[in-house]
Every structure is written in structure tokens, then in C-alpha cells.
Amino acid sequence: MAREARCWMGGVGGGQRVNDMCEKALKINHYSDSPKAGYTHFDTASGYGNEKQVGEAIRASGIPRKNLYITTKLVNSDHHRVREGFEKSLQELDCDYIDLYLLHWPQGTIADQTKPEAGNASFTRVLKPTESPTFVETYKEMEKLLETGKVKSIGVSNFSIKTLEELLPHVKVVPAVNQVEAHPCLPQDDLLKYCEQKGILFVAYSPLGRSSAFFEHEGIKNIAAKYNATPAQVVLSWGVQRKTVVIPKSENEQRLKDNITLLTLAPEDFKLVDEIHNAPGMHKSLLTYHSPEGAVFGWSYEELGWNMTTGGVVPPKST
Question: Is 227 a catalytic residue?
């Protein structure tokens, strides 16, 4: 069954490849009999460097803007100039408004004035959690964007329970969403429960892990064979059944169609996927942004509030 779906444009750059991906996804929408079928939500970011291509493909589709949903994100280097960063994204996308604007990461960066090459964007440093602008200050500036009518809602990305606890007491608008890495190896159950309690929609990026881990998993392959489906369909269906929003990415037209043809997993099949992370060595991030020092983009796991050890591995819970 086809249903309203989201297409994630994660990954820096992409150029014409991103344009082609959007065109393929939009054609699935265009040729459907239902205005709600196919891909209607496109997720990009200033940091990906492909907002222009996303906007071009959307305009070329001929689909009315009101039938589509566009998400983009504030880049780390614009935490001290939120309005300017937002206006640049709006210009790149070349649309009248943005549906959802996210604070991409809690950590900001700024030109390093101690270096003579500080005018060069390459010479930047990551702000410490207590340095201004903090993510609380940055989010407050994002709240002001709502008054312009150019953005419908705001939210965050890559936030933990720790950083949300630091943010929420100081803001007027509860983030509409928290977009984080989530898949069977990193289900983030505690964070999901916390977001549900706070009325924050939990959105899973990289729901397939950006690796072949799930496609080669014997249990998932057996479930896929049972339903005459693909391993990706099994994993995405698990994500939807646990009441998360999944935003997969694919350049292949058939996989784009498969990814929005979801299954209803039987309880025993759902349970198998749900417990994959309990196997030895399986509870971990599957992304490559982890540094050998146990940090991501300049902040330690402790500063981010991520319960991880080096390499993005989640330690076993103490009994």
C-alpha cells in the first residue's frame, strides 16, 4: 500500500544526482491517483549543499507547493546568524516558505579569530556547550522566525534527553520534531519514550543504517522472504510500527517505490527486528561521523548526552 512518504537528501553535495533523485520521487507522486500517495516530504539541509537542486526538482514537477512538505536545517556555522542562514536556505530552495526548520546539531562553529586565516571558512572552531551562542540562544532566535510566516514549524536534530532537558525550560515553542539516527541497531527507545511524553515527533534518519548490515541479516532476510518483500521494507515497516517517522534515501527508482510499500509485521516478526540490538556487538551507531576520541563534530559523547563508547557503541546496561 502506497502512503505519504518522506525522502531524505542527507549527504553533502550531490548536485545533479540529488535533482534526479527528487525527480524520480516526485514522479511516483505525480502518477498516483491519490494526492496523498507517493513522496510528499523532502528533507534537506544547508549543510548538505543541495537545497538548490531540491528546489529546482520540486518546481519542475508542476506539483502545487501546498501539496508538498519541505524540511531544511540551520548549518552549524550559522548559529550566530540564524535569520541570515534561514534566508539563504529560502533563497536556495526558491520557495515562498519552509514547512519545518531544524537546528541541525546542538553544537555551533565560528571563525577562529586566533588564526590569521580566520576569514577563510576552513579555519573554524567548535563552540563549547557554554559558549555563546548556546543552542538555547540559537533556538530562541529560530522561534522569532515563526513570526515572519516564512516557516510553519521548528524543531531540532541530533538532540538527546540531556540536551532536550537543557533546552525545554527556556523556550516558548516545544520542538515539533527531533530528528536522530535510529534503526534496529540503534532504536533509541529511551529517547523515543521521552519525545512521546513531551509531544515531540521522533524522526529517524538513516533508518536503514547506511550499510548492508540489515540486508545481510539472516533474520531480516527470512522475514522478507515470508512477506515476499525486501529487507529494506521489513526494517522500514518496523520503524513505522513503533510509531516513528522514517526518512530513507535512495537513488534507485524501484527502491523508491518499495520504500513506501510497507508491511504489517506479525508480532513475532516485529519482536525479532526489535531485539536485534540486544545481540552481542549490535547495539551501536552505523554512521561514520564518530571520531577516535569518542566525539562527533567537536563535542564529546558526554557533552552531546549520547550514551556511547568509542566508535558509537552503546554499552550494556548495568544490572
Answer: no
